[in-house]
Amino acid sequence: MASGVAAQGSGGGDLVAHADDLGVIGSDAYKLYDGFQRDGDHARAATFEAARALSADNFTSGAALMKVHDTWQSQYTTLRDACAQISNHLDYSTTQHAKDDARVRGSLAAVSVISGYIN
């Protein structure tokens, strides 16, 4: 299953996703996002000002600190956005799967009624 597709006849090709499991993962992803949004950026302004002040006074550590600032900002944004994307996708998937299940149940109910007339 290296390609993400179950081998033919392996019996493992069906996707099973339980809303409870997805809900827990989505909730955890949202909590991480919320925590990053609230706490992950607290040192950005102070780090930037320190780097600027050190650079203005011709300390070479100013440029290094600015690089730390920029790298942290990039990594912080990437991780925060990934948590939001996971949370949003799982919310969407849970809702969409419920709609799909209801549609399939409705289709099968109609077939079941027709089968009753044939038998």
UniProtKB/TrEMBL annotation:
This is ESX-1 secretion-associated protein. It comes from Streptomyces sp. NBC_00003.
